[in-house]
Each structure stands twice: as C-alpha cells, then as structure tokens.
Specification:
- The protein is an alpha/beta fold and 296 residues long.
- The protein has 2 domains: 130 residues, no CATH class; 151 residues, Rossmann fold, CATH 3.40.50.
- The protein has 11 helices and 10 strands.
- The N terminus is likely disordered.
Length: 296
C-alpha cells in the first residue's frame, strides 16, 4: 500500500525545487533531542538516533513513494521499529540506519501509511518540529549567510545543540560547533560517558590547533557563557577571535553578574542575556542591512 506525498507537501513544494542531496543535508542538520523518540539518550554524535519515523515522513513530503517499516534486532535481542523510504523510482533512502551498530539484523519491510505513523501524537509533534526546521533551512538555502564559530562549555554541549539548531533555522546562519562540526573523534567517547571532559586526552596540541583553525575559517564567533559553569576553552577562543584575529564576537551571557565584566566588554561587539535576545538583534541587524542596500 503506497503512501502519497503528505498534506504538507503543497506548501513544501512552493519552496525552490530541491535535490535529494540538499534535502538530506537539511534534515541531518535539523535532528535534535526534540525530534528524537528518546530525547534523554539522544546525543549529537549519534544524531540519527530514534529519528526514523519523522525523517521518513519529511522525505515522503518531498518525494512521495512508500514509507517502509522493518524490525531492527540488536545483538542483545532487543527490537525496535525502523522506518525508511522507497521513492517512486524504487530507489531506497534510509537516512537513519547509521544509528544501528554493526551486527543489527532487519526483518523484511512492510508498507506503512502516513496516517498509521501519525496516530502517535508525540510522533506528530516531533514531525512538525523537524518539518518546520527543514522548511526554514531550505528557504535560506542558496542565500549568502554568516558563518560563526559557536563557543560553549563541553558540559552544556547537548542542551546547546538544540539552541544552535533553532538559531541556524531562524536566522539562516551557520554555526560551526567545535564538538560536532569538525573532526573530533574523542566526542564518540565523551557523549556516552566513557570518559569525562579534559580526561584521557592524548594530544591536547592537536585539539587546540584544530579549534583555532576552525575559528579562522569563520567570519566571527558566538559564545554562550552560562551560570556556574567553567569555560576555560571557550574563554580562550573568545580572546583569540576578538583580540588576536580582530573579528566580531557576540556573547550570550546568562550570568547577570558578568554582563559588565571588562574583559567580556572589551572582547565583544555585542552582548545578550539569552538566545532570543540575540536572535531578535540579529534579525534587526540583517533587516537594516537589507534596507540600506535597497536605498543605495
């Protein structure tokens, strides 16, 4: 029983016609804890974790075809449902199979309708979040966008990944995350708790130089300074971007007691109390630039 492209497809197809590769990139950059079936155990280093149903729905929105379900059986015997797509040309698109470890076995697939998948209200809610994020990314696709290095403490990396995704989608900017957007093999051990931050690091020089190169590849830096949380690395990244490179640094300072700190004032062009304040300021900044260009 093949499923037709979803009811949201009409709106989606009003966007510029996108290729499958462009859609895949937008989806993968939009996965977060809010779109995962198991947000507590989701980590950005395994971003596809428990995202199969909502991902299959979004792919179906754009390309139609069938949504297939299989039962994945882990080596320990536990079983979970797994969804993926068969396009009208019979090509298979399975963006979330990468979440499964080697040795996982899959049953023969069966067709599942959109209506069946959307019976679960939590799945419908997660789908709407993912769909909105993907729409926003595609609307901004092809536009010139700012690229900012995203500095923050390692301990807050999971929570701030959600905020990062929201800022990218709403503002059309690219945030380069030092934990997940550059080659960072140690995060594979850090996320599941095999080791703690700053422990068991074999080559600290390599990590520092990698991050400095990443900062140099960006136009500026956005940093989050949370309450009661050490941020040695991020502090040095702020100084390097602002004082050494002379590039714009934007700070989200959640500790009001630090808002007027002379080192933070000296090494930033703008400071904000939360992400919403930064986003509102950035939108106004972009709007003013657009109006100025139109009046030239």
């Amino acid at each position: 029983m093949g499923s037709e492209a979803g009811s949201g497809a009409d709106k989606l197809r009003k966007l510029e016609k996108v290729s499958l590769d462009t859609l895949i990139e937008a989806i993968e950059r939009s996965w977060g804890a809010k779109t995962s079936f198991d947000p507590q155990n989701w980590w950005p280093s395994n971003a596809a974790y428990k995202q199969s149903a909502v991902t299959a729905l979004v792919v179906n929105d754009f390309f139609g075809g069938n949504i297939l379900r299989t039962i994945a059986t882990y080596q320990n015997g536990s079983r979970v449902s797994h969804y993926y797509n068969e396009l009208p040309d019979k090509n298979i698109v399975d963006l979330t199979r990468i979440q499964f470890p080697e040795g996982t076995k899959f049953s023969d697939p069966e067709d599942k309708s959109r209506g069946h998948i959307m019976l679960n209200p939590l799945t419908a809610e997660r789908y709407n979040i993912l769909k909105e994020r993907v729409e926003l990314r595609l609307e901004n696709s092809g536009k010139e966008r700012a690229r900012l290095y995203f500095a923050h403490p390692a301990a807050d990396r999971k929570e701030l990944r959600e905020r990062e995704i929201d800022m990218e989608c709403r503002l059309g900017i690219e945030l380069l995350n030092p934990f997940y957007d550059v080659k960072c093999s140690d995060i594979i051990e850090l996320d599941p708790g095999i080791r703690k931050p700053c422990q068991g690091i074999n080559d600290p020089n390599k990590i520092v130089m990698r991050d400095l190169e990443a900062i140099k590849s960006c136009e500026g830096l956005l940093a989050v300074i949370p309450k009661d949380r050490p941020m040695v690395g991020a502090s040095m990244e702020i100084f390097y971007n602002s004082f050494v490179l002379g590039r714009d640094t934007y700070l989200i300072i959640e500790d009001e007691g630090l808002f007027g700190h002379p080192w933070l004032v000296k090494n930033s062009v703008a400071r904000f109390k939360n992400a919403d304040e930064f986003m509102g300021w950035w939108e106004e900044k972009v709007h003013k630039s657009y109006v100025e260009m139109q009046n030239r």
